[in-house]
Amino acid sequence: MSLQQSGIKGNIIASAGISNLRNYSPFPGEKIIIAADNDSKNTITNTITNNTVIKAAKTLEMKGAITCIVKPPENGDFNNLLQSCGEQSIRDIIEPEITKLTKAVETTKLTQTENNSIEKQNNITNVKELYNKYSKYSPVTIITKDIETALTIRQAGVEGKILCAIEAENLQNYNPGPKEKIILAVKNDVNTEKAEKVLEDKEAVVCTVKNDFNNVLKTQGLYAVRNIISPEIRKLNEKIESIQTNIQPGLCPKH
C-alpha cells in the first residue's frame, strides 16, 4: 500500500515468500523489484530476511525474470519510511532501480544471431570487445579470460565495456584512457599479475576480482553476480578520487 500510495507505477504484489513465488510465472525479462524490510538492528532477523529475499530473487531469475532487491536506508520497512519521510522518499529509492532494471533487460537481449556469431573458446588470442555500454556515472572496463564469463557479466546487467583478453601479451595492444577503471574478472586459478602491470604501466587503475562467475550465475542468480562486481567499481571510483585529491596543482612535493 505504501508503494502504491507513493505513486509507483507497476504491478504491486504482496508475496515475497519462496513458497508463494514458486507459483508465480514471470514472462521472460520481466523486471521485478523485491521491496524488503531493513532489519539491520537485529542481526539474527536480518540474516534470515536476507537469505529469504535472496532465495526469492533466485527463484524468479531461474524463471527468466530480472530482479533487484531494495530496502529502506534506515531500520524498518517502507511503511515506516512513508510515515517518517513522505511519498517522495520512496520514489527516490524505487524509481532509480526501475531505470537500472530497464538497462539490465536491454543487456540480456542477445539474439540468436549474436549467439551464433560468438565463437565460444577458452583461449582468446587477441583483444575481443564483446559489449560496450558505458554508464555516465561509472564507466568501467571489465576484462575476462573467456567468452562465457564475459557473457555472464553482460547478462547480469553490469554497465561498461567488456573485453576478452586477459593475457598480458594481448593487452600490450590495448590502450586504456587516462585513469581508466579496469576490472580483471577471472577464476581463482588465473594469475593476473602480469596483466595488471601492463595496464598500470599505461596509467590505468586496475583491480582483480576472482570468482567462478558462471557458477555464481547458475547457483545464485544475476543479483549475486552484480553484488560481486558493483562493490569493486565503487572501490575503483574511490581510488581515483583519492589519486585526484593527492594531485593538487601548485603544490610542490615535500623533500
Describe this structure in words.
It is a single chain. Helix 9 (193-201) links the parallel strand 6 and strand 7. The strands form two sheets. The protein has a five-stranded mixed sheet with strand order 3-5-4-6-7, sandwiched between helices. The chain has a two-stranded parallel sheet with strand order 1-2. The protein folds into two domains: 2-108, no CATH class; 113-246, Dna Topoisomerase Vi A Subunit, Chain: A, domain 2 (3-Layer(aba) Sandwich), CATH 3.40.1360. It contains eleven helices and seven strands. The radius of gyration is 21 Å and the shape is globular. The chain is an alpha/beta fold and 255 residues long.
The CATH architecture classification of the largest domain is 3-Layer(aba) Sandwich
Count of strand segments:
7
CATH fold annotation of the largest domain = Dna Topoisomerase Vi A Subunit, Chain: A, domain 2
Shape: globular
CATH class of the largest domain: Alpha Beta
Number of helices: 11
- Which structural class should the secondary elements be placed in? alpha/beta
Mean pLDDT: 76
Query: What percentage of the residues does DSSP assign to strands (E)?
Result: 5-15%
Q: Residue share in helices?
A: 40-55%
